[in-house]
Amino acid sequence: MSYINSVLGPIDSADLGFTLMHEHVLVAASGLSKSYPDLLGPDREARAIATLKRAKAQGIDTLLDATTFDLGRDPELLQTVAAGAGINLINVTGWWLDVPRFMLGVGANQMADEFIRDLNEGFRGTTVKAGMLKCAADAEGVTPALETMARAVARAHVQTGVPIMVHSYPAGQVARRQIEIFREEGVDLTRVKIDHSNDTTDIEYLEWILAQGCFLGLDRYPGRLVSPHSRTVTLKRLMDLGYGERLCPSHDCICLHIHNEQADGSIPPEHDFMRSNPDQYLYMHRHVIPELMAMGATDADIHMLFVDNPRRLFEGR
Ligand SMILES: [Zn+2]
Fold first, then answer.
1. Cβ neighbours of 189 (radius 10 Å)
2. CB under 8 Å, gap of 24 or more: what pairs does 265-271 form?
3. Of the residues 33, 38, 139, 267, which has the maximum number of CB atoms within 10 A of its CB?
4. For residue 170, how far is its CA from the centre of ligand 1 (angstroms)?
5. Which among 82, 86, 98 has a CA at the least distance from the CA of 25?
6. For the segment 163-216, what is each residue's pLDDT rounded down to a tens digit?
7. What separation in Å is there between the alpha carbon of 290 and the centre of ligand 1?
């Protein structure tokens, strides 16, 4: 048992329940939800609450909200939505890919101190504390600015014991460099989850990551580039190879996003991301779990993936 900061206060790791380990209520840019909220469409809080109420009604107890500062984190919105929907939301600190130019000289120790304050004291001006760490690199690899953030997140982990989720880019095998940085920083790799790992079907690469001790976030559904079916085949294959206890399937779903103006000047009532996944947080229950069961997975396997694995990543055993 250990305590995890949810946006509404500490929860016992034993009470996480059915957990999706990489989702987003809101994705925008830092400050956007306060300064230009109408870009996110109408009735934002009510829409998010209704969507998460449907998730809760399906049996989803907890969502890991992977929205960092640079992805537009709005802690008070998360509090309102978690309370309104009766669901646990755990928000991250750390950094995604957008490092603004005026921050390019910032140091890893400086940022580690800030992230640790997010974990221990809360996001400034709010009562919300972060419950997990996150860093990122994508097709461009670990750039100098992203390396600073990765080392800051690693140092915050070493000082606090809070686990790390890692936005990665499997097509470029970027986790090889991210894990190398974590090793240099003394990170416990069994407390690290390498995300977006189902954007590849390269089992050999995924087994290399697992051999380092990390969890895999198989957290893009329905996703692009790789078909949902291929994602589930890869998931089942990794389970059959004996890695089931370190796999965390999720959607990387976004509930509130910019509603882009169309060529004809109209603004659609739903954002692009919603149109690509109308099932939103229920895609797993409606499509992935039934397909996994048809492939031979058991109820105990489903419990392992969505209840036991998130709990063990947080507890560190
Ligand atoms: Zn994400």
1. 16
2. 267/41, 269/41, 269/42, 270/41, 271/41
3. 33
4. 15
5. 82
6. 999 999 999 999 999 999 999 999 999 999 999 999 999 999 999 999 999 999
7. 24
Phi-psi region at 311: left, alpha or beta (left = phi > 0; alpha = psi -120 to 50)? alpha
Q: How far is the CA of 66 from the centre of ligand 1 (A)?
A: 6
Whether the link from the prior residue into 222 is cis, omega within 30° of 0, is: yes
Cα(24) to centroid(ligand 1), Å: 6
Averaged pLDDT score across all residues of the chain:
97
Residues linked to residue 165 through DSSP beta bridges, in sequence order: 134, 193
DSSP output for 105-153: T--HHHHHHHHHHHHHT-STTSS----EEEEE-BTTBS-HHHHHHHHHH
* Ligand 1 centroid to residue 169 C-alpha, Å: 12
Q: How far is the centre of ligand 1, averaged over its atoms, from the C-alpha of 229 (Å)?
A: 20
The predicted-structure confidence for 213-258, as pLDDT tens digits, reads as follows 999 999 999 999 899 999 999 999 999 999 999 999 999 999 999 9
What distance in angstroms lies between residue 135's CA and the mean position of ligand 1's atoms?
A: 11
Distance CA 75, CA 69 (A): 10
Cα-to-centroid distance, 176 and ligand 1 (Å): 20
The predicted-structure confidence for 22-70, as pLDDT tens digits, reads as follows 999 999 999 999 999 999 999 999 999 999 999 999 999 999 999 999 9
CA of 71 to the centre of ligand 1 (A): 9
Q: How far is the CA of 255 from the centre of ligand 1 (A)?
A: 11
Residue 252 Cα to ligand 1 middle (Å): 5
For the chain, list the domains and their CATH numbers: 3-315 (3.20.20.140)
From the CA of 218, how far away is ligand 1's center (Å)?
A: 11
> ∠ CA 241-164-27 to the nearest 5 degrees?
105
